[in-house]
Predict the 3D structure of the following.
Amino acid sequence: MRESTRNQLSLKKGDLDILKVGETLNYRFNRSQGQVARDDIYWNTIHNTLVMSPLMHAYNSKGEYYTFNDQVADGYNWDTANNANKNPIAYMDYMMNQNLSKSHFLQTSAYLDLQPIKDLTFRSQFGYMLSASSYRSYIPSFGKLTATLEQVQDRVTQSMGQSQYWTLDNTINYVMTFGEHNLDALLGQGMTRQMLSESMSGSNQGSIFYDFDHAWLSNVPGLNTVQSLTGTPYPVRWLLICIWTIEL
């Protein structure tokens, strides 16, 4: 989902734009569930399917996923190195399918143009950006897909983060033409501040509901692994630019 607005108000006197004020607002929301493929070749369902043996069954005689126990029973030993003999359909369902990610992005700006006299313009612009995201996933317990790949207990993972910053730019510009000569003078000042950015993630095994709909860390007793990163606000940065151009 994407929303965008832009508004502007002008005050004129003859050919002189005495005052202009305006604002822009952009908002974007993304929601994705399940993952068929990623750019990473080793975390990619299409890659797993292409490199699998065409002799491997997707399901066994009971209609269940074809697992390592079925391979042993059938004497299947095609490309068993590095877990390459895993059933890609089962792997996708168990490891890559049950997840949900959401992201919000807000960008807005407001500006003011003031022209008190001809050829002299003062401009001030303020911008703000906010981004926030959340993610959670569920991996159910499953038997061996290969000799070493199995999930004894189900696992729940959650993460979230947010960041924001603002900018302020002020410029004054004077443009004058006399005869065959042009004078263009610009004086500006800008500030940018990266405000508090933070992220947190956690995971644990052994949920009490055993499904994705209830895959929240609050539904998993105890806490096994927690990783948290909290950013420190950056100081205000000043930028002064002076440009003086004379064309003769």
